């Protein structure tokens, strides 16, 4: 078999989307990461394209279990392009599909994670959290609305990518780097803004020299406002760069230090 006569239907797209949303990460492992999840997502369609228990199906199943790792928010764009190629070229598309997946998973991982795993949760999470702090219940609806929009985007992109096929790669290629850089820059900007607004730690230690009490927090603010929160965030980043350090350990270290320093009267909220 070199080419397929099968054409994907709306039901196929729904099945792929359901598997992508709910099972794509279940087979994640350190050797091939999302490889088995990718295969499971499109396995029913591969069977329809190549037939059950055929040499072509077995070979393509091996191909799709190779190393694959990209953003969960953009993975079905690659899936749509892949299936469009395989539907048209059949088993002859094996090398093309492998190269396409390897070439796109990196750029889409950077774009998808920057926008959907960092930027959007940061912006809408900060809005929702600030409203919650002020006792406004509307914050939860802002967060839910943002997640619904993301889910709709993930559902719609598969069929769009399938219809555009390989032309989507050439159309977007020149924009991937610029979009990645812009998303990264905006994400860093938002992290900086959150450090200044959400990390509320003040230096309460105020040594006395004779009759004069020194306001150390005021002195720090004269050097650079929010210097202490910036130093804390910088310390956490430094910790995370150490060997065997995990985010969970870093969180516990910060909690223990905050409780201890607060009890000693060194810092306050």
UniProtKB/TrEMBL annotation:
UniProt-listed InterPro entries: GatZ_KbaZ_carbometab, PTS_IID_man
Keywords attached to this entry: Membrane, Transmembrane, Transmembrane helix
Transmembrane parts of this sequence: 108-132, 138-155, 176-203, 223-240, 247-267
Pfam annotation, one family: EIID-AGA
GO cellular component, one term: plasma membrane
Transmembrane helix as UniProt keyword: yes
Superkingdom of the source species: Bacteria
GO terms under biological process: phosphoenolpyruvate-dependent sugar phosphotransferase system
PANTHER family linked: N-ACETYLGALACTOSAMINE PERMEASE II COMPONENT-RELATED, PHOSPHOTRANSFERASE SYSTEM SUGAR-SPECIFIC EIID COMPONENT
Name listed for the protein in its UniProt record: PTS system IID component
């Amino acid at each position: 078999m070199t080419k397929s006569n099968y054409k994907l239907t709306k039901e196929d797209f729904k099945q792929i989307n359901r598997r992508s949303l709910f099972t794509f990460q279940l087979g994640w492992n350190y050797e091939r990461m999302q490889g088995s999840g990718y295969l499971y997502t499109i396995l029913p369609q591969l069977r329809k394209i190549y037939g059950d228990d055929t040499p072509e199906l077995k070979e393509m199943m091996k191909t799709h279990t190779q190393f694959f790792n990209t953003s969960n928010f953009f993975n079905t764009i690659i899936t749509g392009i892949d299936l469009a190629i395989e539907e048209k070229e059949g088993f002859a598309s094996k090398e093309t599909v492998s190269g396409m997946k390897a070439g796109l998973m990196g750029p889409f991982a950077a774009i998808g994670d920057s926008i959907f795993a960092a930027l959007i949760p940061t912006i809408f999470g900060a809005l929702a959290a600030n409203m919650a702090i002020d006792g406004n219940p509307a914050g939860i609806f802002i967060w839910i609305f943002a997640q619904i929009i993301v889910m709709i985007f993930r559902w719609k992109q598969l069929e769009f990518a399938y219809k555009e096929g390989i032309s989507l790669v050439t159309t977007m290629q020149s924009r991937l780097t610029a979009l990645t850089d812009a998303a990264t820059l905006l994400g860093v900007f938002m992290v900086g803004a959150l450090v200044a607004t959400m990390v509320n730690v003040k230096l309460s230690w105020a040594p006395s020299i004779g009759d004069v009490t020194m306001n150390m927090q005021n002195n720090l603010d004269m050097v650079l406002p929010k210097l202490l929160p910036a130093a804390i965030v910088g310390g956490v980043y430094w910790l995370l760069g150490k060997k065997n350090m995990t985010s969970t350990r870093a969180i516990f270290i910060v909690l223990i230090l905050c409780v201890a320093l607060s009890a000693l009267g060194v810092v306050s909220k």
